[in-house]
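Minutes, methods subgroup
Present: GH (chair), OT, SY

1. OT presented the first of two proteins processed in the latest run. Sequence and structure tokens recorded below as shown on screen.
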Amino acid sequence: MRNIKIIFNTLRSLSFDKIMKLLRLTLPHPLFSIMGFYATLKSFTLAQKHFPKTHSNNGVGNAFRHSLWTCLIMMYCCKISSPKKALAYCKEMTDLHEELFPNEPLETKMDLHNNQVGMDYFMQLLPGVHRQFFETSFFVKDLITKTKTAKILKSLDDDFKDELVYLT
């Protein structure tokens, strides 16, 4: 319930222009939007459970949350559409999040990088598992393992490929 409050308070803070951008994403894709919203709640809950101290700042828990978030969006959207459409929507949704709620440039790079790590990870798993049979547990354990080798992002020029990154 607390997570829903946070999300609604955040939405209330948006300007008219930003609300219009959000509507341009959600109205053409109502089912994807519902799935994305559910993935957002689920990723917050799981990140809070596994990384209570770092999921809401720029720590390793935040890296976990962003990569899990994109895996969950992909998983839920792939259950109702093709992986190609799910990937396009996931990328658009997560990029829009960074635009609507801007951070410092290094924080934005971190979030976008970790989002991409999650999308890439899901796409790597896809050939081995029918998309209807994916479950949240497929991602949580492996992404927690990835946090153990996460790298500290120090510069906008840093490139850590498929490694999770964090700032503090």
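2. SY then presented the second protein from the same run.
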Amino acid sequence: MMMSPVEFFKTLPAKQCPECGQPIEEQAESYMMECEHCLSKKEE
């Protein structure tokens, strides 16, 4: 039995920051790979 696309996307694990491992709150049209905390450290 095939899973519906909606169910497939609901079961994906949360995106994690590769720097610290914290889950990233995903937003539409956002392709960020790091969390806000790690991004702010890079700008300093």
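Chair's summary of item 2: Residues 36-43 form the longest helix (8 residues).
Next meeting: continue with the remaining queue.
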